[in-house]
Amino acid sequence: MENLTETGRTLGSLLDRRKFIKGAGMASLGAAATTLTLGNVSTLRGATTADTVQEILTAALIAEDLATTFYYNGLIGPVIQDPNLAGSGGSANDVSSNGNAGNVNYLQAALSEEISHADLLRGLLAGPPGSPVPPASKDPVQTFYFPAGSFAALGPFLQLLDALESAFIGAYMTAVEEFATMGAQSAAKPGSSPFNPRQLAYFAKVASSILGVESEHRVLGRVIGNVNPANNLCYEQTDGLTSVYNGPHSAVVALTPFLTSRTGPAYSFAEALSNAKSVSLPCSGGPPSP
Predict the structure, then answer these.
(1) What is the pLDDT of residues 143-202, one digit of tens each?
(2) What does the alpha-carbon distance between residue 29 and residue 16 come to, in Å, rounded to a whole number?
(3) In this structure, what are the phi and psi dihedrals at residue 281, rounded to the nearest 5 degrees?
(4) 53-76 helix and 154-188 helix, angle to the nearest 10 degrees
(5) CA-based Rg of the chain, rounded to a whole angstrom?
(6) Where are the domains of the chain?
(7) Which of 146, 171, 204, 253 would suit a FRET pair with 21, their CA atoms being 20 to 30 Å apart?
(8) Do residues 107 and 280 lie in contact, with contact meaning Cβ atoms separated by under 8 Å?
(9) Number of other residues whose CB lies within 10 A of the CB of residue 37
(10) pLDDT at 4
(11) Cis peptide before 229 (omega within 30 of 0)
(12) How many Å apart are CA 106 and CA 119, to the nearest integer?
């Protein structure tokens, strides 16, 4: 119990998004953004937006890869044998008599949804329809770090789930606002941006469609933990985020701990992605239409 308590304290320290982490990890993310291109089109930095289109989509891709790694390791880690999940001796694909198959299904579907989100973002970063989409092995971040014990017991796992999904929700809300600002600037000064207002509106639509699913994940995490009411918020919040990629109050800064080895054990994104089909359930529906 003492170890689990310490894990909870570590998670709380790392995931307080009002205490933004500075330093390590930011430089590597800045370099990572240059490894993916938005076709041959230059990116836009508006006078009142902190980020470029490329930076926003790159940060979102990294977040989705982080989520993929998180859900996969939750489905294969010791936490899966909690009675609220697969139960004693159970697994993601073999729920025991004292487990909860429905709760396991929530995590299995979430894994597929995060992978689908990443696929869409990877395609948008590749450029116009028909552009060659880089494989996931080319994604900027391939290793993520989680506090020790994150996948050992239900309490720390759900605390981390709630914090991550809340951070993703705030990031996508901020992205919608930034894309809207860019669209207004593009409409006011035609030709000033490599993206027209319709394209920027589509980016905002993509961000909002993903935001809705991340909100479902947060609520279903609370369902797994028997926290009532699970749908406790009247409105989602950005929780102090003012940008997605740049600045001290950015989503990237909030997620930096998961990119630094000081946080805890390393987990491979490639391993999670290559083995995801063995523990996931398919999701339905496609990306929003342009």
Answers:
(1) 999 999 999 999 999 999 999 999 999 999 999 999 999 999 999 999 888 899 999 999
(2) 20
(3) -120, 145
(4) 160
(5) 19
(6) 2-278
(7) 204
(8) no
(9) 17
(10) 42
(11) yes
(12) 20
What residues contact 139, with CB distance under 8 A and at least 6 apart? 36, 61, 62, 65, 118, 122, 269
Annotate the chain with DSSP letters as a single string.
-HHHHHHHHHHHHHT-TTS---STTHHHHHHHHTTS-STTPPP---TT-SS-HHHHHHHHHHHHHHHHHHHHHHHHSGGGGSTTTT-TT-BTTB--TTS-HHHHHHHHHHHHHHHHHHHHHHHHHH-STTSPPPPGGGSS--EEE--TTTTTSHHHHHHHHHHHHHHHHHHHHHHHHHHHHHHHHHHHSTTSSSS-HHHHHHHHHHHHHHHHHHHHHHHHHHHHTT-SSSS--SS---TT--BSSSSTTBHHHHHGGGGSGGGS-EEEHHHHHHHGGGT-------PPP-
Q: What is the number of residues in the chain? A: 290
Residues of the chain with pLDDT under 50: 1-10, 16-48
